[in-house]
NADPH-dependent oxidoreductase
Amino acid sequence: MLVLLGSLRPDSTSRRLAEAAVAALPDGVRAEISTLLPSLPHYDQDLDTDTPPAAVRAFREQVAAADALVVATPEFNGSLPGVLKNAIDWTSRPRGAAALAGKPVAVLGASASPKAAQWARADAVRVLQVAGALPLEETVGLASATAALEGGELAEDVRGRVAELMGRLVREPLAA
Ligand SMILES: Cc1cc2nc3c(=O)[nH]c(=O)nc-3n(C[C@H](O)[C@H](O)[C@H](O)COP(=O)(O)O)c2cc1C
């Protein structure tokens, strides 16, 4: 399981959701949060040749090797952050051999507003579908994220919803 995290800051609230997702995975499912997203260049079709930049090659290999993905996104101006869209764009190519193709994905989102990154989550699902991945339609959002984490811990109900979604992510591809 590979987590693609859309926030670069250490105190990120979406990172906390991502960590809850990793903690909720069944024993024996290995998981890591990718550290490669910030090193990807901006997508450039002229760089997308048979010999792409080393960072792109490494990231594509990392995504291809994962059985499933978790996308954890903040909401920036009503959508997903550029760093995440860029990572999706790179792994949506080459057509016919894209690392994202057919990959099951669960989407989590955290935002400052009470709407729990609803637009970012919806956009992530739509963009992943267009890119050829298989995102679960159901997502989990963390509303008023900074305030929600003031006590230090994610609320029990949020952890429960994250765990339920991880269960589906792990189960459903096997059942398909
Ligand atoms: C450039 C920018 C745009 C933002 N736009 C939105 C937005 O459209 N909706 C929203 O709820 N929060 C918005 N926020 C607040 C972020 O959701 C909030 O800072 C969130 O905690 C960032 O995620 P992180 O904690 O994982 O870094 C925005 C923040 C920034 C920096």
Notes: The CA atoms of residues 38 and 83 lie 7 Å apart. The chain has six helices and six strands. The helical segments are 13-24, 54-65, 82-91, 118-130, 145-148, 156-175.
